[in-house]
User: Which sequence fits this backbone?
């Protein structure tokens, strides 16, 4: 899915920042065997952040159909060994050197979906916002090819994250980031040319 990762030019210009103050390890619910429950392991906490990384203390991480496919071996031939979930909400603990330019600050309540580190140079990255996630040169996808959100802390990409309004709970927001957004986009597309009061099927 992510063949030939290309680094965004900001990586070299801005570099990485170290993470301080976290315990050495944390708990993670990982995929080590297909068609078996997640297993709990102690894993290292993140030690450095790339420019657009957000390190969040996970509050809620939801389970998507993609997680079911990953658990059953429907996507890859070998178990990922990573924790599941690409739909986290939580509190911003630390961030990379470019994330503040997008308006994030420590302590923010955030929600994210799992794409990380698009190349910034391909046609999809330079296209409209609605196609950025098609970049073929991403570093990977949280909960699939990168550690997921079924762990105490996780790293997401500021460009695929939003700050949560106070009135929206962590529990409500988490499944909106992938499953909810997918259905919402379908509705937005389907209602073009539909009159108010008509039925649509999604
Ligand atoms: Zn790209
Ligand atoms: Zn999903």
Assistant:
């Amino acid at each position: 899915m992510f063949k030939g990762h290309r680094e965004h030019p900001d990586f070299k210009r801005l570099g990485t920042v170290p993470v301080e103050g976290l315990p050495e390890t944390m708990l993670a619910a990982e995929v080590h065997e297909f068609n078996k429950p997640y297993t709990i392991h102690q894993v290292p906490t993140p030690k450095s952040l790339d420019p657009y990384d957000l390190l969040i203390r996970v509050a809620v991480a939801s389970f998507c159909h993609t997680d079911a496919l990953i658990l059953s071996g429907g996507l890859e031939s070998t178990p990922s060994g990573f924790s599941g979930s690409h739909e986290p909400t939580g509190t911003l603990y630390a961030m990379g050197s470019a994330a503040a330019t997008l308006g994030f600050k420590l302590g923010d309540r955030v929600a994210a979906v799992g794409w990380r580190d698009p190349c910034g140079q391909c046609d999809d990255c330079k296209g409209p916002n609605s196609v950025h996630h098609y970049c073929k040169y991403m570093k990977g996808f949280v909960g699939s090819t990168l550690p997921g959100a079924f762990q105490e802390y996780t790293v997401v990409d500021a460009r695929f994250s939003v700050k949560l309004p106070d009135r929206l709970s962590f529990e409500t927001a988490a499944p909106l980031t992938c499953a909810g957004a997918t259905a919402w986009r379908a509705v937005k597309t389907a209602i073009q040319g539909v009159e108010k009061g008509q039925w649509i099927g999604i």
